[in-house]
Design goal:
Radius of gyration: 23 Å
Number of strands: 11
Shape: elongated
Number of domains: 3
CATH architecture of the largest domain: 3-Layer(aba) Sandwich
Oligomer: single chain
Length: 295
């Protein structure tokens, strides 16, 4: 009889297309994984993979069974989640994904609050870019993500937590009046310093510039906000950054922060989870904690 364990092994193999890597993920030996896949093929009566000396390929039937196996494993996880949630809110395991432009600024406040209010919660964190979070959430590898909304995924439910206003950061060598509000048009002609491609903060900034008619391009793509701000301090250019990171990142007298005139540009920060998740009440409780630490 086909087991959940065999399905989990086969899904891992479909993901990695490599016996060694798949075996590492499911914590068994490569020969043991190979034997389990052969047993699964025998039980189902069809070939699931094609093997050669260098790589493996899934047959069309194998791809379809892998797809169905992922659905079954998600449903099984939902049953486990429901049982955990039935005991008490935020008392089981929650796998939370967070984008890099939020994690360093929210988690230091959120984690102590969750530990204090929900001591039985086991929180597993994953920090990566939005596109990775969405894919892992849809595949069931994550339970809920904290990101900039909207994610525009029909199978996900979203909940707004707060509006994160954008600020302009410039070198203090420019001797600007920090009490003065700047206009979006002030970005014209400036060397705009942003994170590298793939970061949603970069996309949001460029989208904001295009929306106001400034077809801005970024000449530098850094991997962290800290790197961008070091360049701003040296007057290599300016940047637009979310207000939530200002207290943590701006400890340099060489940088001046300026607010935009009304309506101030911002990004919408919130939670997203699969619509069929039985843990919705847990995510609502999590949202209340987030609102408390970000207000």
């Amino acid at each position: 009889m086909t087991s959940f364990k065999q399905l989990r092994y086969f899904v891992a193999l479909q993901k990695h297309r490599h016996f060694g890597n798949a075996a590492d993920e499911v914590c068994i030996s490569q020969p043991a994984l190979s034997m389990q896949i052969r047993d699964l093929e025998k039980e189902l009566g069809i070939a699931l993979i094609e093997r050669n000396a260098r790589s493996i390929y899934l047959t069309p039937e194998g791809e379809e069974i892998a797809h169905r196996a992922r659905q079954i494993l998600r449903e099984l996880q939902d049953i486990k989640d429901y049982a955990e949630h039935a005991a008490s809110p935020l008392s089981g395991t929650i796998r939370l994904g967070v984008i890099p432009s939020l994690a360093p600024y929210i988690l230091p406040k959120l984690l102590p609050a969750l530990t204090s209010q929900y001591p039985k919660l086991h929180l597993i964190l994953r920090e990566t870019m939005t596109r990775n979070l969405i894919e892992e959430l849809k595949q069931g590898h994550l339970d809920v993500v904290l990101a900039a909304l909207p994610l525009e995924e029909s199978e996900l439910e979203e909940l707004l937590i707060f509006e994160d206003r954008f600020l302009m950061a410039v070198s203090s060598a420019r001797h600007v009046d920090e009490r003065k509000r700047v206009k979006p048009q002030d970005l014209t002609g400036e060397n705009l310093l942003l994170l590298e491609e793939g970061h949603c903060l970069r996309d949001q900034t460029l989208s904001f510039c295009n929306a106001i008619g400034q077809n801005q391009s970024a000449n530098v793509g850094a991997t962290s906000i800290a790197t961008v701000l070091h360049m701003v301090a040296a007057d290599y250019g300016i940047t637009v950054l979310p207000e939530i990171c200002a207290d943590t990142e701006i400890n340099d007298e060489r940088i001046s922060l300026l607010r935009f005139s009304e309506p101030q540009p911002s990004r919408r920060i919130g939670l997203a989870w699969r619509k069929n998740s039985p843990k919705r009440d847990d995510y609502i409780a999590l949202s209340r904690c987030l609102q408390a630490v970000t207000n």
